[in-house]
Write a structure and sequence with these properties.
CATH class of the largest domain: Alpha Beta
Number of helices: 17
Helix content: 40-55%
Number of domains: 4
Oligomer: single chain
Largest sheet: 8 strands, mixed
Structural class: alpha+beta
CATH superfamily of the largest domain: PPM-type phosphatase domain
Amino acid sequence: MNSPRRLVLPQATPPAARHADRVRGFLLHTWRGRILLAAVAVFALDQAGVRLPELLPLCAVVVLVLFGLVGLARLARWAVRRLMWRIRTKMLVSYLFIAVVPLVLLTGFFLLAGFLGLSLVASYMVSSQVERSAQDLRTLARATLAGLHPEDPRLSQALADRLSPARSLHPSLEWALVRDGRPLVTQGAAPKTLPGWLPGPGFAGVVEDEQREVLRGLWAQGGSFLVLDVPLDDAFFSRLEASTGIAVIASGKDFRKRRGADRNVEVSPEAERAIEARLGRSGGVPNVSAVERTRWDTGQKDFMGLFIRYQPAELLRRLSPGSLDMGDVFVKAMAIVGGAFLVVYGGALLVGVLLARSITRSVHALSVGTDRLRQGDFTASIPIRTRDQLGELAESFNMMARGMEDLLREQAEKQRLEEELRIARQIQMSLLPQEAVSHPGLRIAALCLPATEVGGDYYDLLPLSESRLAVIVADVSGKGTSAALYMAELKGLALSLSRIHESPARLLIEANRILAANMDPRSFVTMTYAIVDTAERTMRYARAGHNPILHLEAATGRTRVLAPAGLGLGMDAGGRFEEILEEAVVPLCSGDVFLFFTDGLTEAMNEESELFGESRLREILERGAAGDGAPVAELKDRILSEIRGFVGDVAPQDDLTLVILKVV
């Protein structure tokens, strides 16, 4: 008895050897590798001082640089794959991108939104304070002009007295009182004439006049007007900072010139130290504010930029109602919320790390166990630490490892049985005619295709004399090994009985008597036995329950069915088989075709469970076998092709056997 063979798993090639083989194959067997070798050789010769054509070393350097860039890209990709090989690393990186990166982006977004909001508020406070100061100047000019008498000899002193409160606020205040185009009282560089573009009696705002920016308020009444100017100098911006808490670093043309040059505003060290003293060590948050400005000579409007800095906490404090310090409240609230968030996030991070460790530990154990199985160690076992899906997977792996040895034994046994079936098929096919059988006056074609490795169909062509040929076609019930054994027994009976009995009916009766005594009651054999005599031009035949013979008459071109009565071999051991069995004789005419076949042809089934049927077989005979010159081999191939086209991809359900005789 043969012992079961063990399945030997192939051993993996060491990585270093595989890598060396790949490099060697790349350099020697690819055009890119050959180009790289040539470039290295040219570069080495050039460094050694060998005289080469001028462009050749340059081309070699370009090639080496290109290969270096491609190599660096592939090295980076390999490093990423190597670093990301472990599941734990992948999970941590994915957690980083899923949880940490969005958190950082959201934090940055809210900080940016807060910065932009506070910057807009600071810009609005500066611009609105400048505009409010201009409106105050216009209101002061209107009130002052209404209380003055141009004929008053003490007009200058009266005007100074009325403007004294404003001068205490703006020490650099300038003014000009004009009546009927004649200046009455002037102080500084305030204008003495009115431009023609003024739309009404009053004006308030920032103007550019004689290459300087001033805050101007004007009121005209009757033939008189009063202009009040406050230069936009450091003193004005210092007072602005005192009222808003926002420092103005640069403004007007100086700001535009510097910004246009390098997009930045240069601040002197002294000014920087003063800002730090007022706004703290950080110097505040930088921003830009825009104030509408009017050119005094043309009335054209544009914007004057103010580069400012502010402290967010101080700004929030000034925006707070009454004595409530919103900056302090905001900082404390954000500290509480941030602390709670950090606690929750730290707990979530800890849980995530523990879950990742649990998952990756189980996956790593599976990887180690799989590698041990690949090396042939079937005792590999994975510890089960959790009762979850990964725990069930580990348990399934252990069960698979324990059953692997049995699986390999079963596979070896299956291979042994397949080999024995292959040998049995060879033996069975050797029982059939091995060479094309020829007989005077006949053209013969035959075919037998088992549905499995071995089958129960059997055909034979036995020359009995120079003019007589015995034709046998049989089908054992069932398939597989038992049918093949009965087929081999039938082969021996046919060979021995054909030499004794000249009558087909007597041969079948004797074969039934022998088989019925030894055959399994659940099995039987159908068989057709015919003796063709080309000298007497007759065919004598009998049918033991087998498929009928199809006879194509050359004279009419139509087929007919030859089906004398008969019972299957082995179904009855008494006299009933002999009573039912009939023997018939048919004359032979030139061009006649006889088709002997098994039910594998007519019962071939397609995907719709439709049978091929006897009618289709008769149609093929009538279409393809007419005429004396039609070869029987071509007819056999056409029948087989039609059946395969009808069946399609459906696996064969029964053996397929046919024998074609054509009378010459």
